[in-house]
Each structure stands twice: as structure tokens, then as C-alpha cells.
Design goal:
- The protein has about 800 residues and is mainly beta.
- It contains 4 helices and 53 strands.
- The chain has a 33-stranded mixed β-sheet that branches.
- About 40% of the residues are buried.
Length: about 800
């Protein structure tokens, strides 16, 4: 394992040093940094800006997460650069000489400007990105190895973000349901469960940002980190069309071809409807994917996902200072055999069928004084149904599970959201101030029904040890109003110190409470050249309450029957569902400190520490008194997360190597409510305990980069090594043995690589683009098991199963 890790690191080093030479052979090139200036004159880089180059030939590019862009292969001549983003534009003229690289600074302003510049070296600046704000740019979205081709699959490229053992993304020590999920600033969580509830074609994504501690008071209704996705602005100049994944992948089972393994065609078109005024984007994606569990029989090892994602966006330039955007997303999905693993075969799993759509409208106006007024309205529907694959009684055995899944769900949810935001024009008093105020209102509703069927726990002797019976199904309807108002100030005291203050108030009709959430942060240049920055902050955050929680007393009650060795009934305890002590909004107290140092012109080092304490989490606990039981839901849970991070980024000639080490600890109460009453509920509820959370990975090394290889190849390798996730030991009765989550899976070690090459093909006088490449996942085929036999009474106790095998993916994209 050490040799494999060393080999992977050697490959990364070879790519970063050796391939740099291959990028210098172009006839001519233009490189630069896209930025804008604040009121204090300090530059701030702009990622995801679309850049069009006009001259002897026409080419396009997009600035990366650090605001950098590069356009190679240019014949000598004069070129005009045009850059556009919502509310900003920029441009300049550049003279390109054969065999040289012209370097230019490209400033974006509220009004389009055009300058002629001489080619000079530019000063390297530390980007605004920090350990608290990590951006995945469109170039990474397009080039990084992505087996699922979904945007959330790229989030683990951020230090401190992992995909947990349940397959969901855990950001910075927070449960998936504790995080904030935004698309174009609109909340896209499921009102019932609090989890992510939208799916977009990846082609429309401009960038995604993971914000560990968003001290900006505009952000709220979460206690963890935030994932914020921005979609691409439609093209106002000309039509572009791309199509890919037209060939299905075969279903290979132990060397035999057994039908289709996957078919995921995707098409996107963007262009002007009214030139320079109205443009649109339409992206369509159909997905049919079978994913195998390697430890199951060949014809019984696949989960099946079938989905159709549609995203439409209209961008309107009302004037140079006024813009509007309308987007419509539709995302139905069928997920069959959810929860399939080594010990849970297909007949015992559940099917999850979802229907979702979202409409979002946004309007922005910039006054002559520099004030910005922004309005946003969003409407979301998200319905989910679950049902079993067998009608046989559900039985939990030591080695496997039999029968049909014990839970059915019918959920219909709606959300309406309205937000107003006003940025004042710059104010000058004891420095420069950028003030903003706003409010946010949302109304959510949840109508549902949850029938439960009996569950039997069977021991090694084949006799029933316990049986769980449930009451009659009930229907329920829950409504929630949430209102927030906030104020913030970015106060620049001088060229070296900036303070940010924010105050947010949140009101929730479910908890019938109003909370004040103050935040503050600072950026201090420790050296006059601003190459060493100190960043720190602290704040309070209040989470939303998922509507499953107030609906909990309406769920069917349960009775637990216990049987003796001879099959005689020894006890019968009825449990009623109750909320104990009233519901509260979970609250987190967070602080961080970091130092960024630009050691060399192209080398940035960062050392950071953050800590989060969360209280009032929703915890489930069975309690008994006098022969009767109570299944208590209470706001008594506590989570704790701390993270120490060391990060380095080396960037030269548009080639980037990122490397990070994270030492972290994530602990808390283990009976989180959502694991028992989410999409895939658990039948057995043991007493609550504290311990490492299921996604806790104390040590993680992550390295990835973007490199120009020979023959104009673009290579994007990713090396991910982290401590194995924790698990608990149980006996045949499903009682926990010893401390919870005291054992761990083997260390995770994976090296992924994507290779991509672009070709320009003239056709009927027009330039067409073909991108050809391949991806390989778990290149060294390292054993990374996903299942473990944790039952102490099993003959296979302690054995691991279902390792992810080496996988290849081809890539072919047609664009014109």
C-alpha cells in the first residue's frame, strides 16, 4: 500500500514538472487574470467568467477558481478580448507574437471598457478563496474524473468533504441533512427530510462553492457547511450545441455480457434569442445506470437508477445595469433496490421514486451610485414514494435479510421562497463600508402517509428472537413558515485590514421561536506586500427543522415482542411516538483561524483550523417505564467537529497541483432522527449513545491537479487517502457490543485519472469541436470495501466485502 501511494505521488510530481514543457510549443498564447476592484481598490479575482477572443481566429475560454485563464495555439496578430458575466463586462486588445505568451490583467467593471495594453508581467495576488471558501470551477467540472457525472460527486475534491458510508456527501463534519444546498442562491433541500432534493445536468454548472463557515448573514437555515451551485450564463453572441454519451455501456458480469449496464446521453444548447438582449440555455439528460454490488450473485447484484433531468434558463439584459434570469428544472427519478449490499439482497430493499421541479426567477439592478438591488423568487415541488420489492414478511437474519422491506412512504412537499437583497453604494466613515440588508421568506408544506409492516429478528438457531409490530397507517399534513431578516457591513479600515460584521434573525413557525445569529470575520495583511494574510471569524447558525419531525407523533406506534429459546413470549412492550420537551432549532457555534502565505510567485501555502459545536440536534431514544415504552424525539443532540488543515497549491502555465492534509474529529449523538425516518429507515432503534460519527475520517491526504500533457492532452489525476470509516459491533439480537463506532474499515486509498483531448474539425465552413478521452477510477485496484459483517455471532464476523473495483469510462463530446 505504501508503494502504491508512493507511485501515485511520483506520477503527480512527474506530471507537474515534466508536462510543463509540453505547453510551451504553441505558436502564441494569451494568459491572464480576471478581477474586479472593490471600493478600497483591492482586487478580487472572478472565477467562471466567459472569455471570447476575436482576431485571426475566434476562441473561447473561462476563468478558473483563481480567476486565471489561458488561450493557446494562436496565430500572430491583434486580438480583441471580450469578457462577460452578469452585471460585469470587460475587454482589451492584445498583440500576439509567434512563440511568445502574452500576459494581461483583465479588469471587469459595471460598464464595458476597452483598452489597448502592452504585454507585461502581472503581479501575483493571493486569491480570495480560503479554507472556508473552496470553489470548483467549470474547467474542473469538465475535466476532473467523475464516475457518476453529477456535480455532488466532485465535492470531495474539497479538503474536509467526504462521501460517507451511506453514499451521501458530508461537508466539513456535518450530516448531509445539516448542510445548506443552494442552486443560484435558492434553497433546494427536501422540506420533509432536509436532504438535497435537486438534480441538474452537469453541463449547465458554472461553478460550485463549498463554504465551511459562511459568515455572510445572507446565509442561514443550516448548522454545517453550504454547497452553492451557480449555473452558466447563456451565450448572447452565437449558438453552441454539445452532445455526448451516445453509446451505451454493456453490463459485464463475470466476463459475460448481460444487456446494458448504462446509457446516459446528454445534450445542451445555448444561444441568443434576441442578440445582446435575450439568451437561453436548454440541457437534457437521460440516465439509466446499473451499479453492481460485487459480493452478490451476478444477476442479483445491481441497483438501477433511471432519471430524466431537464434544465432551462433564460437570461435577459434589460440594460447595462439591469438583468433578469428565469430558470426551470425538472428532475424525476426512479431508484430501484435502494440500500442493496452484501447482507441486504434485492427482494429486501426498497424502491424510491421521486418527482421534482423548480422554478426560479431573479432580477438585479445596479444604480449609478453603485447600489445593487436584487430580488429572487423560487417555487419547488418534491414528491417521493417508497415501496418494497417483495410481499413476504421482513426478517433480519444474522447473515442476510429476507422478505419485503417493512416501510412504505408517500410524501408530497412544496416550498415557496422570496428574497430581497439591497447592497448600498459605498459609504465612507472611518474607512470604507459596504452595507447590505435583506429579508427571506419561505413557506413549506408536507402531506404524507407512512405504513409500516412487521419486522422479525431471527437468531443463529433460526428462531425468532424479537418481533416489531406497528400500528395502523395514518395520514398527516404539516405546514411551516420561515422568515429571516439580516444586515451586514464590510468595513475596510485601510489597505491591510478588512472587517465583516453580520446579524441575522430567523423565525420558525414550527418551533415558534426567533433567534439572533451574529457573525464577524476579519482579513489582515500581516506583511505590506499582502503575501501573508490572517483570516479569522466566528458566528452562530440556526438550522431549519425538517417536517418529518413535527409529523413524527402521527407515525404508527410500535410494539416489541421478545421470545424465549423455546419460542414462548417473554415480554411485550408498546412504544408510542412522542416529542419530548418541544422542538428547537439546532444551533451551531463556529470559529476559525487561518494563515495564507504566498511563498513563491506560483506557490501558495495555507494553514487553517476550524471548530464547530452543535446543540439541540434531533435525537431519537427508546425509553421504558412500568412496562410501557416511549419512543422519544427530543432536541437534545450534540455534535462536535474540529479540523486542522494544511494546503498547498502550485500553479504555472495554467497547470495546477493541489495537495492537502486534514486532521479532523467528528463526534456526536448517534441516534440521529433522519436515519430512522428518512428515505431508507432502520427498523431497530437501540438506546442513544455518543461516539465517532459514521463519516468520521481523522486523517486524510488529498492531491489533484490539472496538467497539460504531450500531444495536447489534458490530464486530471486525483489521489485520495483517508482513514476508514467507523462501525459498531452487534450480536444476533441487534444489541450493540462494546462502545458504538469503536471499529473501523480499512484505510481508503484510490487514484483516479481522466485524460481529455480537444480536436477542432472544420465542417461546412464552421468550426466544430470534438473532445475525446477516458477516465479510470481506482487505477491501482486497491481494496476499498463498503460492507462488513459486524455481527459477533456470525462465522464471518470481521470480514469485509463489496470493494470498489477498477473501472474505465470513455468520453466523447461533440460540440458546435
Amino acid at each position: 500500500m505504501r508503494r502504491l501511494s508512493g507511485t501515485a505521488l511520483s506520477i503527480l510530481l512527474f506530471l507537474s514538472l515534466g508536462f510543463a514543457q509540453g505547453s510551451l510549443t504553441a505558436p502564441g498564447s494569451i494568459r491572464g487574470d480576471v478581477f474586479t476592484k472593490g471600493t478600497n481598490g483591492e482586487p478580487a479575482v472572478l472565477p467562471g467568467v466567459r472569455i471570447v477572443l476575436h482576431g485571426p481566429i475566434t476562441k473561447e475560454a473561462e476563468s478558473d477558481a483563481q480567476g486565471a485563464f489561458a488561450i493557446d495555439g494562436l496565430p500572430p496578430g491583434t486580438y480583441q478580448i471580450e469578457a462577460n458575466a452578469l452585471g460585469l463586462s470587460g475587454g482589451l486588445a492584445v498583440q500576439v507574437t509567434a512563440g511568445t505568451s502574452s500576459t494581461v490583467p483583465l479588469e471587469m467593471n459595471l460598464i464595458t471598457v476597452s483598452n489597448t495594453v502592452n504585454v507585461t508581467a502581472t503581479e501575483v495576488l493571493i486569491a480570495d478563496e480560503s479554507a472556508q471558501h473552496n470553489t470548483i470551477s467549470h474547467s474542473v467540472v469538465e475535466r476532473a474524473p467523475n464516475q457518476d457525472e453529477k456535480i455532488d460527486s466532485l465535492l470531495p475534491l474539497v479538503p474536509g468533504v467526504v462521501r460517507g458510508p451511506d453514499g451521501r456527501i458530508n461537508m466539513k463534519g456535518a450530516q448531509a441533512t445539516q448542510a445548506g444546498w443552494l442552486v443560484n442562491s435558492a434553497n433546494v433541500t427536501d422540506p420533509a427530510t432536509g436532504g438535497q432534493a435537486i438534480s441538474l445536468p452537469i453541463d449547465v454548472v458554472s461553478s460550485v462553492q463549498v463554504i465551511s463557515n459562511p459568515y455572510d448573514p445572507e446565509y442561514g437555515r443550516f448548522t454545517g457547511a453550504v454547497s452553492s451551485v451557480e449555473t452558466r450564463t447563456s451565450n448572447f453572441d452565437k449558438f453552441h450545441f454539445s452532445i455526448q454519451n451516445l453509446a451505451p455501456r454493456v453490463r459485464d458480469r463475470d466476463g459475460s455480457i448481460l444487456g446494458i449496464g448504462a446509457f446516459t446521453p446528454r445534450a445542451t444548447i445555448t444561444g441568443p434569442l434576441i442578440k445582446d438582449r435575450l439568451a437561453f440555455t436548454q440541457s437534457l439528460e437521460y440516465r439509466y445506470v446499473r451499479t453492481p454490488v460485487e459480493s452478490l450473485p451476478p444477476l442479483q447484484r445491481d441497483t438501477t437508477l433511471e432519471s430524466f433531468d431537464s434544465f432551462s434558463q433564460f437570461d435577459l439584459k434589460i440594460s447595462d445595469r439591469q438583468t433578469a434570469t428565469l430558470s426551470v428544472a425538472v428532475f424525476p427519478q426512479k431508484f430501484d433496490y435502494l440500500g442493496l449490499n452484501t447482507f441486504n439482497p434485492q427482494p429486501s430493499t426498497t424502491n424510491l421514486h421521486q418527482r421534482g421541479d423548480q422554478i426560479s426567477a431573479q432580477h438585479s439592478y445596479v444604480s449609478e451610485s453603485g447600489a445593487l438591488f436584487s430580488s429572487r423568487f423560487a417555487y419547488e415541488e418534491f414528491d417521493a414514494d417508497t415501496f418494497p420489492n417483495s410481499q413476504a414478511p421482513y426478517q433480519m437474519l444474522v447473515e442476510t435479510t429476507e422478505g419485503g422491506f417493512f416501510n412504505r412512504q408517500n410524501r408530497d412537499t412544496r416550498r415557496v421562497e422570496w428574497q430581497e437583497l439591497y447592497h448600498f453604494s459605498p459609504k465612507h466613515f472611518l474607512g470604507d463600508h459596504e452595507l447590505k440588508v435583506g429579508f427571506d421568506f419561505s413557506h413549506s408544506s408536507y402531506d404524507g402517509r407512512q405504513p409500516f409492516l412487521p419486522v422479525s429478528i431471527v437468531g443463529t438457531a433460526g428462531s425468532t428472537l424479537q418481533q416489531i409490530n406497528f400500528g395502523t397507517p395514518t395520514t398527516f399534513s404539516i405546514h411551516q413558515n420561515e422568515f429571516a431578516w439580516f444586515v451586514g457591513d464590510q468595513w475596510t479600515l485601510g489597505p491591510r485590514l478588512t472587517l465583516d460584521f453580520g446579524l441575522r434573525f430567523d423565525n420558525d413557525s414550527v418551533t415558534d421561536s426567533t433567534h439572533a445569529a451574529p457573525r464577524a470575520s476579519l482579513t489582515l495583511a500581516l506583511t505590506s506586500d499582502r503575501r501573508t494574510l490572517l483570516k479569522a471569524g466566528a458566528g452562530l447558525f440556526y438550522d431549519r427543522v425538517p417536517l418529518n419531525a413535527p409529523a413524527f407523533p402521527s407515525f404508527p406506534d410500535r410494539t416489541i415482542l421478545t421470545f424465549g429459546p423455546s419460542g414462548n413470549l417473554t415480554s411485550s412492550v408498546p412504544y408510542s411516538n412522542a416529542i419530548t420537551g418541544g422542538l428547537k432549532n439546532p444551533r451551531s457555534e463556529t470559529w476559525n483561524v487561518e494563515v495564507d502565505r504566498q511563498v513563491l510567485e506560483n506557490l501558495l501555502l495555507r494553514v487553517a483550523y476550524q471548530q464547530r459545536n452543535t446543540i439541540d440536534d434531533l435525537v431519537l431514544n427508546p425509553e421504558t417505564s412500568g412496562g410501557d415504552g416511549l419512543l422519544s424525539l427530543a432536541s437534545r443532540g450534540r455534535d462536535f467537529y474540529r479540523e486542522f488543515q494544511v494546503t498547498g497549491r502550485y500553479q504555472i502555465h495554467r497547470q495546477t497541483l493541489n495537495a492537502s492534509y486534514v486532521r479532523s474529529k467528528a463526534t456526536g449523538d448517534l441516534n440521529d432522527f433522519n436515519q430512522f425516518f428518512g428515505n431508507e429507515p432502520q427498523a431497530v432503534i437501540q438506546p442513544n449513545a455518543r461516539g465517532p460519527l459514521a463519516f468520521d475520517a481523522p486523517n486524510r491526504f488529498l492531491a489533484w491537479g490539472e496538467f497539460n500533457g504531450p500531444w495536447k492532452l489534458m490530464l486530471t489525476p486525483v489521489l485520495d487517502i483517508h482513514t476508514g470509516f467507523p462501525y459498531s459491533v452487534v450480536n444476533e439480537k441487534r444489541d450493540f457490543i462494546g462502545p458504538r463506532n469503536d471499529e473501523r474499515f480499512p484505510r481508503f486509498d484510490s487514484f483516479d485519472l481522466q485524460v481529455l483531448r480537444s480536436f477542432g474539425l472544420p465542417f461546412h465552413g464552421k468550426e466544430h469541436t470534438v473532445k475525446l478521452g477516458f477516465g479510470v477510477f481506482n487505477l491501482f485496484n486497491h481494496a476499498n470495501p463498503r460492507d462488513v459483517q459486524n455481527d459477533l455471532d456470525s462465522g464471518r464476523f470481521g470480514q469485509f466485502f463489496n470493494s470498489a473495483v477498477r473501472t474505465f469510462r470513455g468520453k466523447l463530446v461533440f460540440g458546435f
